[in-house]
Amino acid sequence: MRFWPWRGAADRSRPPGPEPARFTPSGPPAPRDGPMALSVTQLGEWIFDQRCEGVLSHEPTIVRLEGTLHTAALRAAFAGLQRRHECLRTRFPLIDGVPMQVVEEPRADALPLVDLSALPAGLREREAARIAEETLSAPVRLDDRPPVRQALIRMGRKEHLLLVGIPHITADLWSATLLNDDLMALYGACHDGVPGRPPTAAAQYADYARWQRARWDERRTAGELARWRARLDGLAAADLPLDRPRPAGRRRDCFFVGDELDGELSEELRAFARAENVTLYVVLLAAFHALLGQAAGAGRVLTTSLTAARHGRAVQEMTGPFSDYLAVVGDLTGDPDFRELLRRTRDACLIAHDFQRLPFPMVIEGLDPAKELHPHPLEQIEFHLHNTPPPVLDFAGGLRVSGPLPEPEPGEAEPVPWTADFAFELYDYGTGHLPLHVLLDGHLFDPESAGAWADRYRSVLRAALADPTARLSQLVTPHGPGAEAYDVRRAEEELERCDGVLAALVVMRERRIPTGLAVREPVGYLALAPGRDGTRPHAHGIRGQTRGRAPTVLIERPLAEIRRAAAARSAGGDPAGALPPPEECAWLPEGAPPPADEVERRLAAHWHDVLGAPPAHVTERFYRPGAADLDAIRFLTRVAADFEITVPLVDFMAAPTVSGVKEYLLRNLPVM
């Protein structure tokens, strides 16, 4: 049983520059006698939980305590911790279709105790593993009780297991360090029989959430979004080399593979950063941008990085989810040398910090209100340097603490819920090697690609250290993971191995959406190897409606590329494949009928209740300016009550239309 580390284990350093607004407690605290609005970060985590369908995305603490444990003192310490920090006793119910937070009273039994010491050794270990699995691995329910989970298992007189699981909607890693320090202080005081309760916090996270919601009113939000639109005008998602074509929808199946930068290389990088008067983050990010630019053939690349986002003294000692993202635009134009790229990257980081005012979920929503971008350029590629020290359990009385879980084998793919196509995670605690995790979406990449990306990254770093005056074209070789992108011939070979495949050959164009970002979309041609039912989908159905009816292979390439591939195939004398040349393809039909049958009319009525107007036709997209994920959740809540089936948010986002929801219902209801 393994889980992904905390989101929020972020780079705590911040260069000089304009400061975001600081929260300062003023006036009476928010009333706790009823539901309260979520902060922007909490709402983002709540929606992420809906997209992951409750799958854990945090790493629980499971430690073995050996020695004389003062059980009553530890349980009292957890009770004190729960009284002091409201986030530990906050649940998140859905009220009238809107997620809220409710702070509950402290529980009488904050740390349940299970005594297995009387069982035989083998049975004791198996039972402890079962309890840990049930306690920490079951899907998280945010609504019915606070999602924090903890338990103490007595294995013997001088051996215990401590289980603690705190989800990201409750606390980030900075908060985990604060909670850990408080717990150790409380246990020490109880152990020694002296009063030592930490001082009461001046404000709690619910007060911060109320302040944040009041600050980001419509006028201030619109002003910040205008700055973001000007900054990112014309940027599109990177055209990364993939191992397979991008599927329809927004469902992710991510994994990470562990790797490292060895100790010698890591120390050289730290020394180089000091000599160049930049942070280690800037050096590592510049090399990552150089790698991305070559792989995507782009002069500008966009990456996002986690930051602690603790702005102001009042939140330094406050627990809750504060972590946010820093969006950095890498400028690789003109084939600069690496030293020049360092300068550009440092300046880009300063600009990025100046833009870290509006909470990132509001930026994502505001720059793509109609959910047209797939992938969203701000969610596609991530680069994280984690330097927040992990919590250290240092119990009074000389308890020895050890972790019972083995580390994953190098190169072993570990599943993880995530929203990015591609991410690098590095960990720096000042000395020694830098652990590296390569995170990839399994729908797009094979596990073997992770090692290839890591190898190329190390190669770029070593070349930059050897000669920082070398041009990027000399540092980065054109060969590596995904050098041969998914093309027509590979798709044909895949089609030949399948039975009854519905295949689409689509001409793509790039179009700017009203907010200035660019989106690639299908515009013209469709070639079909008929599916089992012999149908040909409408344009709106290429991405959504074909799914579930027949296996689909979708090739997204500009028309010129398709023609070149067809000509090369003909020149080589290859037999005709499953896909015809473009001149034999048909135009994608446009338009669609209005809601007509009973199911469509009922869906349209729920649509009207939420958005204030019915859809004009069954393929009209639900998302539009002013319609957010919360509106989608309200719509899906009504659909669930009417049809007695829940449409997952991630499936709705794949086809946010009346016809898309109807298709899902038809596939999942026995009788319609």
UniProtKB/TrEMBL annotation:
Region (Disordered): 1-34
Pfam families: Condensation (PF00668), PP-binding (PF00550)
Carrier domain mapped to chain residues: 594-669
SUPFAM superfamilies named in the record: ACP-like, CoA-dependent acyltransferases
Cofactor(s) of this protein: pantetheine 4'-phosphate
Entries under InterPro entries matching the protein: ACP-like_sf, CAT-like_dom_sf, Condensation_dom, PP-bd_ACP
Record protein name field: Carrier domain-containing protein
Source organism of this protein record: Streptomyces stramineus
